[in-house]
Amino acid sequence: MRKIILLFILFITTFSYAQSTGSVVGKLTDKEYNNEPLAFANVLIKGTTTGTTSDFDGLYSFENLDAGTYTLVFSFVGYETQEISVNVIAGKATEVNVVMSASAATLDEVVITTTTKRESETALLLEQKKAVEIKQSIGAEELSRKGVSNAAGAVAKISGVSKQEGSSNVYVRGLGDRYLNTTMNGLSLPSNDVNKKNIDLDLFSSDVIENVSISKAYSSKFYSDFAAGNVDISSKDYSGSGFFDFGIGSEINTNAISKDFVRSEGTGHFGFYNRYAHDPFAVILSHGFNPVNAGTPINTNFGGAFGKSFNFKNGAKLSFYATGSFENDYQYRKGSSIDYTNVEKKAFEQAEEFEYGTTTTAMVSVIYKIDTSNTLKFNSLFVNSSSDKVGYFGIDGKGRNRDAIANTDEGFYQQNIQFNENLIYVNQLIGTHKFEKIDLDWGFGHNFVNAHEPDRKRLSFENYQYALDNDPNTNPIFYSNVDFDNQRYFQDIQDEELNGRLNLAYKTSDKVKLNFGYNARTKERRFNNIRYGYDIIDNSGISDVNNLNSFFTLDNLNLTSNEGTYEIKVIKPYPNLSNTNRPGRFENTYKGKLDIYAGFLNAEINLGEKWLIVPGVRVESFKQYIEYDVINLGVNGNDNISASDVLYLPSFSLKYALNEDQNLRFSASQTISLPEFKEVAPFVYESVSQRIGGNPDLLGQKPGETYTNVKDVSHSKILNIDLKYEWFVTKSELISLGAFYKQIKDPINQVVAFDATGTQRFFRTGEKAQIYGVEAEIRKNIITNEDDNAELSFGLNATYMHTQQDLYKDIVGSNFNVSFVNDKEELQGASPLIVNADINYSPTFFESYKPNATLSFSYFSDRIDALGSGQLGNVIEKGIPTLDFILKNEIGKKFEINFAAKNLLNPSVKYIRKTTQGDIVVTSPNGKDVSNYKKGMNIGLQFKYKF
User: What does the pLDDT read at residue 715?
Assistant: First the structure.
């Protein structure tokens, strides 16, 4: 159709000029991408300044050319430049179609060649325009421009997406971790956290990301556990003759820079802990409590990448890409930590927390291109992420505890010294094979995660006000209501998963393509923990609460009657051993297993040039199993539960091309949501002022139990409907408007118990939940240069949602009960309003200097963090605006100096509980151990050199 329009324009033009001139028209295709249209390639008339670029469909044209012979020069970054002689005849159009391909000779000066198409903003817009499903992507180019350092920050720049402050939780259209899936190169990724289904996207640095995409509408190729969307991280690779770059940077946080930082004893600067082989009892006997100096709180980061390709005589190519990086982060938080349910249990109006975090990333990618039709890729990723927190609660001497022994109104004080390390290994083998009418894609993955919390130290004191009065005759004492008020805690989680995918695409004609596919994954989690408590025998006073090593010495350990100051207790001793001053067995354990096997079929049917219809169906079998042995349920604590089903899930999508630059899309599907392991396992995790645990009833009923409003269902059924309009105004400009609806039957919510403990658990709280929403996005160029590239541009996207769910009056389960006063409520985790915006200035009038300045803004409005039960109000996460400024300076072709100032508005991070007495500031298991704090601004400088 485009060719006909071009020829028609040509005819009118030549007629008006009395047929004295001619034209050249044609189409560029990409040999490296199965001869798809090649957009944004340069076409120049040699010896002149006349040139053009190919459009989205690979088409180009020159009009009003005098009759004669011309040489056209076709070029695209990383591809062989071609010169073709053309004879222009007056009154006629000459058609020149060119197939562009990569060339070793022209790759010498290119860092990323064929893959740059999937990193650039314009290329990803083209991919979005042509995509069968509704999805959005953000590439490495945009990540760099906006100063985004990881995948979590990347997805938060996409419309309808927000990130929870103080955690790695990502919400898509108001739906959080439970409703999301995360993949890398189309293969499942593990979770690194016992409390989550998805991996922490903060762990994926921009060095390993080619692009990040979110598919918000379901396709039969995805696993059925889909509601909010599927986040896919495409890893970087390389094709070229070789490159190496290295960068180093430094950053300060305005809160942290003036503090004397401390961290756990036994941990290293690079975030590794080397005592996992030692028995926890041996660790507590050998190593003390006191934190150690963490060094000057200046953040540092460094990393490098290199790539190399080898071409063989038979046309094969072997390409290597490797990257490695390290970064650390000092954070200081000062706020409050209050445990309030139906009454105030603990309250620290003044609390502070020092956190030292590290991320070490290494990735290797090897691609063997056998020929133009067959490619193999091996990808290996290693990530070590650590968090080292030292918290002091009640630092003003006014901490309160209703169960205190000495004084319930003041002087209660706690220390929490906690190190978490996550070691993640991801290995993938991927193949693509193209034949005349058949394309075959497959992949296998193995994931392994070791998530450790070794030797958390938590100590409790009374009369801490005496530590502040400078009177040597008055001292704090230990709070020792039970042995485990002062404790050492060890926790370990191991996740292992095998997964695979297979897709065979058969093109029956130019109008119809059939996709046959298979997915499978088997995942196993093993969890255990153990605590050692301290029974304080001599509680006459502590002269220095910051030097506990002088009290907890081996000499002071009470091995005979009343000759020491303390004893070590364990809950589950070994048979024939005492529970005092002896090693013990695991206190809580659980094992989870999930097996999924599925086949799918869909058809891509083109009806004419405007309509694309994709009906599909997925048949999926799943089995979920949990066995547990936990102490908090007493005789009911050793049990198991399982659920299985075979699902038949239809999907349908439609794309109508209003014209060459505008699409109208519709999608409808049936999916499900499975509960996460941590939502089912009844183990209770206790932070300083919060407790959270799972509920086995989420997998259905058990024989012999009596239930009220607990259905015998193991999953939530979800109806998804999407409608979207897209207008690709130019190669880098976009206007889109969308509407969506979701209905979730038997939804799961996080609920705060209406009792003295205030333990948060998960329940199927009603018959259904509904979500109505609209999304809008605009990307606009304000100033462009002579090549039509933006010098000043802005982007804006916004999402507005209305959510409502039914609530049962009473829920009586096998172990846990809850009730609600209201019969309707908003959906937990849903922000009614989400906004992302940025403005970018990148002038091009300097010859060897390329500045790029970006100011980016994001905001999410208040949302429910946890539902309150009984007379309790909901816990609300207050909305947060974020403003960042990024300045990148490319000097010549090899050197960069980059500046960043982040969190310029420095808002307060706050959780509150709605009560009849007004809003009360509380903490959340989804956030940090303090609330109502400011993060501080991060100001940094980075240097990067390309060899």
Answer: 94
Kind and range of the H or E run holding 125: helix 121-130
**Distance (Å, whole) CA 423 – CA 875:** 32
Beta strands in 608-715 (DSSP E): 611-629, 638-659, 662-673, 684-686, 691-693
Identify the pLDDT of residue 73. Answer: 92
Per DSSP, the three-state class of 344 is strand
Q: What is the pLDDT of residues 783-796, one digit of tens each?
A: 988 777 788 988 88
The answer on pLDDT for 325 being more than 70 is yes
Write down the pLDDT at residue 750: 93
Beta-bridge partner residues of 32:
none
Q: Which residues are CB-neighbours of 130 under 8 A, at least 6 positions away? A: none
C-alpha–C-alpha distance, residues 203 and 723, integer Å: 33
**Which region holds residue 166: left if phi is over 0, alpha if psi is between -120 and 50, else beta?**
left
Structure tokens at 555: 């000499």
Secondary structure (DSSP) of 151-178: HHHHHTTSTTEEE-TTS--EEETTB-GG
d(C-alpha 133, C-alpha 721), whole Å: 13
Answer whether 910's CB lies under 8 Å from 920's CB. Answer: no
Average pLDDT value for residue range 206-227: 82
- What pLDDT digit, counting tens, does each position of 88-101 carry? 887 777 888 888 88
Q: What angle do CA 204, 209, 212 make, to 5 degrees?
A: 95
Q: To which residue do tokens 């060899």 refer?
A: 947
Residue 150 has pLDDT above 60, yes or no: no
CA-based nearest residue to 643, from 593, 704, 590, 705: 593
CB 194 within 8 A of CB 678: yes
Dihedral pair phi/psi, residue 687, rounded to 5°? -95, -170
Which residue in 750, 804, 806, 836 sits closest to 179, CA to CA? Answer: 750
Rounded to the nearest integer, the mean pLDDT of the chain is 86
Specify the length of the chain in residues. Answer: 947
**DSSP-derived 3-state class of residue 871:** coil
Q: What is the mean pLDDT of residues 163-191?
A: 72
Residue 927 burial (10 A CB sphere; 0-12, 13-18, 19+): buried
Q: Provide the sign of the torsion angle of the four alpha carbons 365, 366, 371, 375, taken in this order.
A: negative
- Mind listing the pLDDT tens digit for each residue in 618-658? 999 999 999 999 999 998 999 999 999 999 999 999 999 89
Rounded to an integer, what distance in angstroms lies between the CA atom of residue 859 and that of residue 861? 7
Residue 191: closest CA among 749, 653, 685, 676: 676
Nearest 5 degrees, angle CA 378-CA 381-CA 383? 175
- Cα 572 to chain centroid, rounded: 38
Structure tokens at 622: 């799943």
Which residues, 6 or more positions from 705, have their beta carbon under 8 angstroms from its beta carbon? 813, 814
**Per residue in 583-597, is it b (16+ CB within 10 Å) or e — as a string?**
bbebbbbbbbbbebe
How far apart (Å, rounded) are the C-alpha atoms in residues 377 and 366? Answer: 6
Which has the closest alpha carbon to 77: 117, 45, 49?
A: 117
Q: Rounded to the nearest 5°, which phi and psi values hold at 465? A: -60, -25
What per-residue string of b and e applies to 850-863 under the rule 16 or more CB within 10 Å gives b? bebbbbbbbbbbbb
Q: What mean pLDDT do residues 264-285 have? A: 92
Report which of 735, 737, 708, 733 is spatially closest to residue 722, judged by C-alpha positions.
Answer: 737
Reduced to 3 states (helix: H, G, I; strand: E, B; else coil), residue 533 is strand
Residue type, 372: T
DSSP 121: H
How far is the C-alpha of 110 from the C-alpha of 239, rounded, in Å? 9
Residue type, 488: R
- Cα 868 to Cα 339, 727, 922: the distances in Å are 14, 43, 13
Tell me the whole-structure pTM to 2 decimals: 0.84
CB 435 within 8 A of CB 178: no
Residue of 580, 760, 572, 575 lying closest to 678 (CA atoms): 760
What's CA 422's distance to the chain center, in Å?
Answer: 15
